[in-house]
Write a structure and sequence with these properties.
About 8% of the residues have low confidence. The protein folds into 8 domains: 91 residues, Phosphorylase Kinase, domain 1 (2-Layer Sandwich), CATH 3.30.200; 176 residues, Orthogonal Bundle (Transferase(Phosphotransferase), domain 1), CATH 1.10.510.10; 62 residues; 63 residues, Trypsin Inhibitor V, Chain A, CATH 3.30.10; 62 residues, Trypsin Inhibitor V, Chain A (2-Layer Sandwich); 64 residues, Trypsin Inhibitor V, Chain A; 65 residues, 2-Layer Sandwich (Trypsin Inhibitor V, Chain A), CATH 3.30.10.20; 66 residues, 2-Layer Sandwich (Trypsin Inhibitor V, Chain A). The protein is built from 16 helices and 37 strands. Strands 1, 2, 3, 4, 5, 6 and 7 form a 7-stranded antiparallel beta sheet that branches. It has a 3-stranded antiparallel beta sheet with strand order 8-10-11. Helix 5 runs antiparallel to helix 8 and helix 8 packs antiparallel against helix 9. The protein is an alpha+beta fold and 711 residues long.
């Protein structure tokens, strides 16, 4: 991929990063979807074609045709649009390479691998045909192989709806790639699903032979060969190709659409039979070629002989009689020559037909022995005893025991002669049964669950059930996740039915565009957007919806959005002089919830217990999420110089005595234990104090008091 020197962004969302490929009408880029933060592929129509209405319509049709197809083997289309006069299509980014690149790098594919690729392509075409879409440009460049070995069909740029007369070209116009044309495409006549089958047959031929069946100096020359010529025998270009697979391809590439597979499902089924080692339904390709040769001879015989025998005028006289005799003789000779030529051609066709049917074979010819179902050693002995030479031996997995002969080429009953080479197809035993761990697919959309199961080789069946989950969601599965089953086992999916109501999704914290996309996916419409400050959600993010998230509403209901305008702002009130509790209440009423209280002893006694400072200062505009710090005064009152009599505290406990003394200003108090035993009622109580209680008055702050406590 080539990096893009000057990245361009389409619709403010898709940022081009690398050029992937160039085509005849567009370029394909790798891009980043800024909204969903994922890689995508974007096909961009060449600017000079954007002014051509036909090309723009063709581009629109591609987006529309592919967007309606949801299948594991079809590249999905996410979006399409126009930006500054340039049209584009947004598709899934496939991490892989085209089949054409793989063949250029590795050459022909092994027969089994080619058939497996063909099965996936046929599955994609079958799905498209069921939905009324004919691809019309099936070729290796439009078949993508992912890094995890998946097969994806892309580029429905000239796809056409089967159930309409709509077309992008005039009658007789030709669209597609000449190398992979069906005969009807080359002739510019109407096409249907069988045209895609022919093109897939050509792709299979090229995968095995390493080259297309028809080559030419110009596209016109190649196209005409699709109509007139027979493809070279595949076994001549690739001798290792099994006869059954050659027969499948020959049937797919039949000149007449009526002689091909009549649906992509039929072709897919025959390819799967080949992979599994079962007999295919396609006939012998040699017999097909004889039938086509007979048809060609019949066409030659239909030449109007009267064109070679011109009539003589009725008014000839005299010398005209002699000229008439001469002309009659000349006509007779011409007629004899034509008849002799036709007889020669007919004789050649009869010989070819008899040879194909095994009725002639030269000296020493005999019927091919039937050794199918016999062990390889027994079959080899039987054939060699007849003078036949054992050629290649192909092995396939099959339901029979290993070493059992499955087929012979030539087949049994065909006329053969001594020294002729025979190819044997031998069973390598049943396909090993793989164990698969059933994955968890509940809560997934049905299409995604199907893809997960198919990739693991599991089949599935869908049961629709009533469930409040979103429509087409898997709500249950049998067997459950974690169960070990055989490959090919069926998983029953319980899928929620489509309902008339849907729950409003929670889009809190998403951008308005993301919220609109989520609502649209639920069948709802995004309505008006109003702004509201928020200290928890950033600017531009959804704060709430109306109706609220979780509310059951009818589909197509309009959901209005409340979007954050950023942090809330307010004017800081003046709380200096208030108590800390009152100050916090005032600040919180204005939206300031983060209030910190500190204290300072450095202040006037008159402000003791009051707020003396605040940050931010009063009148400042600040975010209500910011912190407000208030400082309160905790000053100690100065000691009093007024004299007081000492309170009498004898008979009280030490704790009570100290509190009484402190209340009157006597803060310097000590206590000691009495050395003598005191009476029982005075235990742990003050029995003496110095100075004694009562006058004379003394200064409390300057007078220490000593208490004697009874033991």
């Amino acid at each position: 991929m080539e990096p893009v020197e000057t990245p361009r962004v389409f619709s403010g969302r898709y940022e081009l990063t690398h050029l992937i490929a160039r085509g005849g009408m567009a370029q394909v880029f790798r891009a980043r979807d800024r909204l969903l933060d994922r890689p995508v592929a974007i096909k961009v129509l060449f600017p000079e074609l954007s002014v051509d209405r036909a090309f723009v319509e063709r581009f629109r049709r591609e987006a529309q045709a592919a967007a309606n197809l949801s299948h594991p083997n079809i590249v999905p289309v996410f979006d399409w649009g126009e930006d500054g006069g340039t049209y584009f299509i947004v598709m899934e980014f496939i991490d892989g390479q085209p089949l054409s690149a793989l063949m250029r790098a590795s050459g022909p594919l092994p027969p089994r691998r080619a058939a497996e690729v063909g099965i996936h392509v046929a599955a994609a075409l079958a799905y498209a045909h069921r939905h009324g879409v004919v691809h019309r440009d099936v070729k290796p460049g439009n078949v993508l192989l992912t890094s995890d070995d998946q097969v994806k069909v892309t580029d429905f740029g000239i796809a056409r709806a089967l159930n309409t007369e709509e077309s992008l070209t005039q009658t007789g116009a030709v669209m597609g790639t000449a190398t992979y044309f069906s005969p009807e495409q080359a002739e510019g006549v109407g096409v249907d699903a069988r045209s895609d089958i022919y093109s897939l047959g050509v792709v299979l031929y090229e995968m095995l032979a390493g080259r297309p069946p028809f080559l030419g100096d110009t596209p016109v020359a190649v196209a005409s060969k699709h109509v007139r010529d027979q493809a070279p025998e595949l076994r001549d270009l690739a001798p290792a190709v099994p006869p059954d697979l050659e027969a499948v391809i020959a049937k797919a590439m039949a000149k007449s659409a009526d002689q091909r597979y009549q649906s992509a499902e039929e072709l897919q089924a025959d390819l799967r039979r080949f992979v599994e080692g079962q007999p295919v339904t396609a006939g012998d390709p040699g017999a097909t070629r004889v039938q086509q040769a007979v048809a060609a001879t019949a066409a030659m015989a239909a030449v109007d002989l009267t064109q070679a025998v011109p009539a003589t005028g009725a008014g000839d006289r005299g010398d005209g009689v002699e000229r008439a005799v001469t002309e009659r003789r000349r006509r007779t000779r011409r007629l004899v020559a034509v008849l002799v030529g036709l007889l020669v051609v007919l004789a050649v066709v009869v010989v070819l037909l008899l040879d194909a049917l095994g009725y002639i074979g030269g000296s020493g010819s005999f019927a091919m022995p039937d050794v199918v179902g016999k062990p390889l050693a027994t079959a080899t002995g039987t054939l060699e005893a007849k003078g036949l030479v054992i050629g290649a031996t192909d092995h396939r997995t099959a339901g029979t025991a290993a070493g059992t002969v499955l087929a012979t080429d030539p087949p049994s009953g065909r006329s053969v002669h001594k020294g002729q080479r025979v190819t044997l197809t031998v069973s390598s035993g049943p396909t090993p049964v793989k164990s698969v761990l059933v994955p968890k697919v509940t809560t997934l959309p049905t299409t995604q669950a199907e893809a997960v199961l198919q990739n693991l080789g599991l089949s599935y069946r869908v049961n629709l059930v009533s469930n409040p989950a979103p429509a087409t969601t898997v709500v249950a599965q049998t067997p459950p996740a974690g169960r070990t089953v055989k490959s090919g086992s069926q998983v029953v999916l319980s899928v929620s039915k489509s309902t008339t109501t849907v729950a409003v999704p929670d889009v809190t914290g998403r951008t308005a565009i993301q919220a609109a996309s989520t609502l649209g996916a639920k069948g709802l419409q995004a309505g008006t957007s109003t702004s509201q400050c928020s200290n928890t959600l950033g600017k531009g993010l959804v704060v709430s919806t109306s109706p609220a998230a979780g509310t059951q509403v009818a589909k197509s209901t309009t959901v209005n959005l409340v979007v954050s305008s950023g942090p809330c702002q307010a004017v800081v009130p003046n709380v200096v002089g208030s108590t800390p509790t009152a100050a916090k209440t005032t600040l919180q009423s204005k939206g300031f919830t983060d209030v910190t209280v500190t204290s300072t002893p450095t202040c006037a006694p008159a402000t003791n217990g009051k707020v003396v400072k605040q940050t931010p200062s009063a009148g400042t505009s600040a975010s209500t999420s910011s912190s407000v710090v208030i400082t309160s005064c905790t000053a100690t009152a100065p000691p009093s110089n007024k004299k007081k009599p000492v309170p009498t505290v004898t008979g009280r406990t030490v704790t009570t005595a100290k509190k009484l003394l402190a209340k009157t200003g006597f803060t310097s108090v000590t206590s000691s234990k009495a050395t003598l035993t005191c009476p029982q009622p005075t235990h742990t109580k003050v029995v003496a104090q110095t100075p004694k209680g009562g006058p004379p008055p003394v200064t409390p702050s300057a007078t220490p008091v000593t208490l004697t406590v009874c033991k």
